[in-house]
Write a structure and sequence with these properties.
alpha/beta, 154 residues, binds 1,3,4-trihydroxy-5-OXO-cyclohexanecarboxylic acid, Rossmann fold, five-stranded parallel β-sheet, 5 strands
Length: 154
Protein backbone atom coordinates (compact mmCIF):
# COMPACT_ATOMS: atom_id res chain seq x y z
CA UNK A 1 0.00 0.00 0.00
CA UNK A 2 1.47 3.42 -0.91
CA UNK A 3 1.63 6.26 1.63
CA UNK A 4 -1.17 8.11 -0.14
CA UNK A 5 -3.47 5.07 0.12
CA UNK A 6 -2.80 4.43 3.81
CA UNK A 7 -5.70 5.57 6.06
CA UNK A 8 -4.91 8.57 8.29
CA UNK A 9 -4.81 7.33 11.92
CA UNK A 10 -7.43 8.99 14.14
CA UNK A 11 -6.20 10.12 17.57
CA UNK A 12 -8.72 10.88 20.29
CA UNK A 13 -7.58 13.90 22.33
CA UNK A 14 -9.73 13.85 25.48
CA UNK A 15 -9.96 16.53 28.13
CA UNK A 16 -11.62 16.20 31.52
CA UNK A 17 -13.48 18.50 33.88
CA UNK A 18 -12.83 22.23 34.10
CA UNK A 19 -10.48 22.24 31.12
CA UNK A 20 -13.17 24.18 29.25
CA UNK A 21 -12.10 27.08 31.52
CA UNK A 22 -8.47 27.06 30.35
CA UNK A 23 -7.12 30.58 29.96
CA UNK A 24 -9.43 31.86 32.72
CA UNK A 25 -8.94 29.22 35.44
CA UNK A 26 -5.79 29.63 37.60
CA UNK A 27 -3.74 30.86 34.60
CA UNK A 28 -0.59 31.00 36.77
CA UNK A 29 -0.84 27.19 36.92
CA UNK A 30 -2.53 26.26 33.65
CA UNK A 31 -1.46 29.09 31.34
CA UNK A 32 -3.32 31.67 29.26
CA UNK A 33 -4.05 29.53 26.21
CA UNK A 34 -7.67 28.49 25.82
CA UNK A 35 -8.74 24.94 24.99
CA UNK A 36 -9.82 26.26 21.57
CA UNK A 37 -6.25 27.60 21.03
CA UNK A 38 -4.89 24.18 21.97
CA UNK A 39 -7.32 22.38 19.67
CA UNK A 40 -6.29 24.59 16.73
CA UNK A 41 -2.58 23.97 17.41
CA UNK A 42 -3.19 20.21 17.77
CA UNK A 43 -5.10 20.02 14.48
CA UNK A 44 -2.24 21.75 12.65
CA UNK A 45 0.47 19.57 14.24
CA UNK A 46 -1.56 16.40 13.64
CA UNK A 47 -1.89 17.33 9.99
CA UNK A 48 1.91 17.77 9.72
CA UNK A 49 2.41 14.38 11.34
CA UNK A 50 -0.06 12.58 9.06
CA UNK A 51 -2.60 12.12 11.86
CA UNK A 52 -6.16 13.31 12.36
CA UNK A 53 -7.73 14.18 15.69
CA UNK A 54 -11.09 13.89 17.43
CA UNK A 55 -10.76 16.59 20.13
CA UNK A 56 -13.26 16.53 23.01
CA UNK A 57 -13.78 18.00 26.48
CA UNK A 58 -16.31 16.88 29.06
CA UNK A 59 -17.03 17.67 32.68
CA UNK A 60 -18.70 14.26 33.06
CA UNK A 61 -16.94 11.00 33.86
CA UNK A 62 -19.44 8.82 31.94
CA UNK A 63 -19.09 10.93 28.81
CA UNK A 64 -15.31 10.41 28.93
CA UNK A 65 -15.88 6.65 29.35
CA UNK A 66 -18.20 6.71 26.30
CA UNK A 67 -15.54 8.55 24.27
CA UNK A 68 -12.87 6.01 25.24
CA UNK A 69 -15.25 3.23 24.18
CA UNK A 70 -15.83 5.07 20.87
CA UNK A 71 -12.05 5.14 20.37
CA UNK A 72 -12.11 1.31 20.48
CA UNK A 73 -14.10 1.46 17.23
CA UNK A 74 -12.11 3.92 15.14
CA UNK A 75 -9.22 5.33 17.21
CA UNK A 76 -5.56 4.45 16.65
CA UNK A 77 -4.46 6.14 19.88
CA UNK A 78 -5.68 8.20 22.84
CA UNK A 79 -4.15 11.32 24.35
CA UNK A 80 -5.97 12.12 27.57
CA UNK A 81 -5.80 14.89 30.12
CA UNK A 82 -8.29 13.42 32.60
CA UNK A 83 -7.93 16.51 34.88
CA UNK A 84 -9.30 15.78 38.38
CA UNK A 85 -10.52 12.31 37.28
CA UNK A 86 -6.83 11.36 37.02
CA UNK A 87 -6.78 11.04 40.79
CA UNK A 88 -10.19 9.44 41.35
CA UNK A 89 -11.56 7.46 38.43
CA UNK A 90 -11.40 3.69 38.28
CA UNK A 91 -14.14 3.88 35.60
CA UNK A 92 -11.85 5.82 33.27
CA UNK A 93 -8.96 3.49 34.09
CA UNK A 94 -11.06 0.41 33.26
CA UNK A 95 -12.23 1.98 29.99
CA UNK A 96 -8.60 2.72 29.06
CA UNK A 97 -7.62 -0.87 29.86
CA UNK A 98 -10.12 -1.93 27.16
CA UNK A 99 -8.29 0.13 24.51
CA UNK A 100 -5.55 -1.69 22.63
CA UNK A 101 -3.58 1.20 21.07
CA UNK A 102 -1.09 3.64 22.66
CA UNK A 103 -2.37 5.91 25.42
CA UNK A 104 -0.59 9.10 26.46
CA UNK A 105 -1.60 10.72 29.74
CA UNK A 106 -1.05 14.44 29.75
CA UNK A 107 -1.13 17.22 32.33
CA UNK A 108 -0.47 20.90 31.76
CA UNK A 109 0.97 21.35 35.23
CA UNK A 110 3.66 19.30 36.93
CA UNK A 111 1.33 17.31 39.19
CA UNK A 112 4.32 16.07 41.24
CA UNK A 113 5.19 19.59 42.37
CA UNK A 114 1.69 20.26 43.67
CA UNK A 115 -0.55 18.91 46.42
CA UNK A 116 0.24 15.33 47.46
CA UNK A 117 -3.09 13.96 46.18
CA UNK A 118 -2.18 14.97 42.62
CA UNK A 119 0.86 12.70 42.63
CA UNK A 120 -1.33 9.61 42.41
CA UNK A 121 -2.82 8.78 39.02
CA UNK A 122 -5.16 5.86 38.34
CA UNK A 123 -4.81 6.59 34.63
CA UNK A 124 -1.04 6.01 34.66
CA UNK A 125 -1.70 2.30 35.20
CA UNK A 126 -3.05 2.16 31.63
CA UNK A 127 -0.82 4.79 30.01
CA UNK A 128 1.95 4.02 27.56
CA UNK A 129 3.63 7.27 28.61
CA UNK A 130 2.99 10.39 30.66
CA UNK A 131 3.77 14.05 29.89
CA UNK A 132 3.33 16.71 32.56
CA UNK A 133 4.46 20.19 33.46
CA UNK A 134 5.08 21.54 29.96
CA UNK A 135 1.85 23.49 29.57
CA UNK A 136 0.05 23.58 26.24
CA UNK A 137 3.22 22.44 24.49
CA UNK A 138 2.65 19.04 26.11
CA UNK A 139 -0.25 18.41 23.72
CA UNK A 140 2.02 18.88 20.70
CA UNK A 141 4.72 16.69 22.24
CA UNK A 142 2.08 14.05 22.91
CA UNK A 143 1.07 14.09 19.23
CA UNK A 144 4.71 13.66 18.22
CA UNK A 145 5.11 10.77 20.64
CA UNK A 146 1.89 9.25 19.29
CA UNK A 147 3.15 9.47 15.70
CA UNK A 148 6.34 7.69 16.80
CA UNK A 149 4.37 5.02 18.66
CA UNK A 150 2.25 4.35 15.57
CA UNK A 151 5.14 4.40 13.13
CA UNK A 152 5.95 0.93 11.79
CA UNK A 153 9.65 1.59 12.56
CA UNK A 154 9.04 2.61 16.22
C1 LIG B 1 -4.41 18.73 35.38
C2 LIG B 1 -3.88 18.43 36.79
C3 LIG B 1 -5.00 17.88 37.67
O1 LIG B 1 -4.49 17.60 38.97
C4 LIG B 1 -6.10 18.90 37.80
O2 LIG B 1 -7.18 18.37 38.55
C5 LIG B 1 -6.57 19.44 36.50
C6 LIG B 1 -5.62 19.65 35.42
C7 LIG B 1 -3.35 19.43 34.51
O3 LIG B 1 -3.55 19.48 33.28
O4 LIG B 1 -2.34 19.93 35.02
O5 LIG B 1 -7.74 19.80 36.36
O6 LIG B 1 -4.75 17.51 34.75
Amino acid sequence: MSASERPVPLIYVLNGPNLNLLGKREPEIYGYRTLADIETACAARADNLGLSIAFHQSNHEGVLVDLIQAAREDGAGIIINPAAYTHTSVAILDALFSFEGPIIELHLSNVHRREEFRSHSYVSKAATGVICGLGAQGYLLALEAMAAQLSPTA
